[in-house]
Description:
By secondary structure, the protein is an alpha/beta fold. Helices cover 41% and strands 14% of the residues. Helix 1 (19-33) packs across helix 4 (63-78) and helix 7 (145-155) crosses helix 8.
Amino acid sequence: MDRFTHWFFDFDGTLCDTEPDIIGAWERAFERGGIRCPDFRKRFKTGPTLQETIRLIFPEASADECRQFGEAFKVAYDTSGFPHSVPYPGIEAWLTRLREAGKRLAIVTNKRRKPLLMLLEKLGWNPYFDGLYTVDTFSDRKMTKNEVLAVALREMEAPAAVSVMVGDTVPDITAGQVNGIATAAVLWGYGAADALRAAHPDFLCSSPMDVGGKEGLND
C-alpha cells in the first residue's frame, strides 16, 4: 500500500460511527412533526444520500412531503451537537501515520457539507484533510458518489495509479472502480461483509488496528 499517495475516504461508517446521532435526529424530527413511522428502524439504512434515505423510509411520500421530511431532519441533526458520533478505534492513529508519511487525504461522502464541517471541527480533524467532497458541494444538482469522486480526483490532480478509495459500502467500492482507482473495503462499518467481498475490492480491512501493512490495510 506504500505506493498510494492520494487517499479518498468515505466518512459515515468508515472514519466515524455516526449512526446513533442520525437515528436520533430522525426520531426527534418525527416527534416534533407528529409523524408516525412504525417501520422506521426496519427501513432505515445509514449511507445513502438524504433524498435516498427519505425514499427508503417513506416510499409513497409526495415530492412536497419528501422536502418537508428532509428539512425536519436537517434541523434536528444539524442542531444535535452530535453527542454520540465517535471515531472508530484506531482511526486517528491511521490518519496521523498517513499524514506523517506525506500522503494527501480527502473525504468523499454522501453526507451534506454543513454537518460534515461541524463534525470535523468537533473532532479536531481539519488538519488531516486536503479536500472535502460532498454530494451538495458543487452544484444545485445532487451528485452521485461516482461523480463526487471524479471531481475530487480532478481537483486534487490525483493520478489513478497512486489513488485509493476507502469505504464501508458497495457504492464506495463501485465509485472507485468506475473512476479507475484502487479500492479498499473496511469491514467495521455499516456495509454487509458478504456484499463487500462480492464487489471485489482490491483490499479488505477488518480493523484500523490491523497495521500489518504500514497504512492499516491488509490484502
